[in-house]
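Worked example (supplementary).
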Amino acid sequence: MEQNEVLKKLNKIFIEVFEDESILLNENTTTSDIDSWDSLNHIQMITAVEKHFKIRFELNELLNFKNVGDLCRGIEEKKK
Amino acid sequence: MLFTSIIYFLFLGSSLIVYYLIPVKYRNYFLIAASAFFYMYVKIDYIFLIIFIILANYWVGIQIEKSKTRNNKLIYLNLSLLINLGILIFFKYWNFLIENIFEILGWFHFDSQGPLPILNIVLPLGLSFYIFQTIGYTIDIYRGSIKAEKNIFRFSLFTLFFPKLLVGPIERANRFLPQLQKKIYFEKENIIEGGKRIARGLFKKLVVADRISIYHTAVITSLSDQSGSTILFATILYTFQIYADFSGYTDIALGTARLFGFDLMENFKQPLLAKNVSDFWRRWHISLSSWVNDYIFNPIALKRRNWSNWGVFYALLISFVVIGIWHGASWNYVLFGILQALALMYETLTKKARKKISKRIHPSIYKYSSIFLTFLFVTFSLIIFQSATLSDAWSIINGIFSNHGELYYNSPSTLIFMLAGCGMMLLYDIQVEFKISQFSFLANKNWGTQQACYALLLIYILIAGVFDGGQFIYFAF
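After joint prediction of all chains, the assembly is encoded as:
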């Protein structure tokens, strides 16, 4: 799966979970860029991502994601 | 050495002069010596404890990084947790644990023979702050998000740096260690901005917090003689007091660090204007709440993400009990934490419903009523926070609703100084929060106006400040 494709799908999931149509993700997006991205719905977002891509992250992987780019690469690794 | 004492400013002024006079390469060494002196001035005994903590974490950090396998890394991480938490529990929670264990044993008729093994120890100042900082440091190395610091002097200063040593902010290694590698030169801007920040902190502490403290203590220590309106007023003022006290301290800490060319993390972002409780915790004591978020809430909630909301609730409860008990070994802090966790659970469950309501009401009305309700909740939870026992808290709540009568104040000037102080502090926050430039006195774009406002602020501190006031509330934590 191409990174662009992953990013597009992620964008859709983010819009749904954070209920914010205006979200436009790029690789450098972090929690501070999206108002509604707090630690409570971060968990919901991760669950939604895992469900959509049918993958399961390790706890260590999840704790090391610094931005959307890291999450994209994490998904691609799992999909290989 | 109180941040508001003359001796502190003598120490600060002389250290600053020496700091900028000596060659750049010696400046960090000088700061280590100055910080050690600062700590020993408070109480000389505990310098050995902090030296041990520095050496232990410095060594463990390198061992975690050097370990080849995940398992070995984990062994060293656990060793670091054992040392850090062991010291914290010994000094802060030992008596509390012993008393409660024997209390529970008593229920089953296992009565102790002789006196309990209670220790007569004093909590080393700042321990809860710098222990959390070193725990964060070793976990970050374990997670691979930072490299271990190989330079013992840099690591010592990371732990000892006196502006944040006693009451935080609880710094993060990835923010602060890189600053210690830079060469710091004299910049006029740092002195001006640092000085202004200190002035704002002194205002909050001496004019707002210490003035309210006199009134609040008088009311709370004579509850049965006070009217409901007086108790309610004192309770509301306490929210302003604790905010002014702690954020005033933090302003002085950040201002001091800035004088030496360092940038410490912000601890408060207009918390009294939070729109809900989770928003409040993103604005209040940020260095602690984000620490708990990164090292406790996130790992637990992510691990239990299959439990859906229950996983989040479980993580919230543990996180806020930790935040509560971090303040001290006492059941009122535990209850304070549980209350916060319950509020956040409620907010998680009602998120959709609240969003629906918000669409039906005028946005401004919704916003301001949310701020008001959040303030009420915070004030209520602080009743528990400020009471040593549950029955003390109940006396306050009961007093608010039962004793009718007039508002007590010993002189109109007491009332005016308190309200003016709270008003000025709140106005500053409102101006920052809503970016209203008309109210901008201390950040006025006109240089002359801004300087005049700072001059007035200093005069006001001299007139209305309480100079024989006491400790900072957070010294006790």
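Two points are worth noting when inspecting this output. Chain A has one domain: 3-79. The helical segments of chain A are 3-18, 39-53, 59-64, 68-79.
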